[in-house]
Amino acid sequence: MKYKTTILLLAFIALVFSSGFSIQDRNFQKTPPEKTQAFQDSVKKVAIEDSLKLAESKKYKLHKKNAHASYYADKFTGRRTASGKIFDNKKYTAAHRKFPFGTKLRITNEANGKSVIVEVTDRGPFTKGKEIDLTKKAFMDIASSRYGGHLKVTIEIVQ
Q1: Owning domain of residue 142
Q2: Which ranges carry the RlpA-like protein double-psi beta-barrel domain (predicted)?
């Protein structure tokens, strides 16, 4: 019986606080929706400003423009990469022939300007003309259509 009472009390408290009430001078007063919306907007604005500052604080060194990028096939998921890590097509990693493992790269799609930051964890691609292999998640984040398997990208080193 005591367990049920505790659960009911916690449920009531959660209901009161999730419905927009605030405690002021020991009286329950409804917080006006415009104040709640203004607070949420200011939180979003601060988050956006922080992410822009973080992006501006990073320095990028151009490695190659007009590079050919492709993505890994799903059959490689779960296998070990050349660095020894387990490959996951849902992460932001890449394969490059020369960059040291752990190097962070910014890959920008030249057609639409979208970019992602990936970490080099594997060697390859070993197909002539291809510069970098991205995970499927990284590739699809910058691709303008979901049907192509290759892109022209700019590769920059994150410093």
Answers
A1: 60-158
A2: 66-153
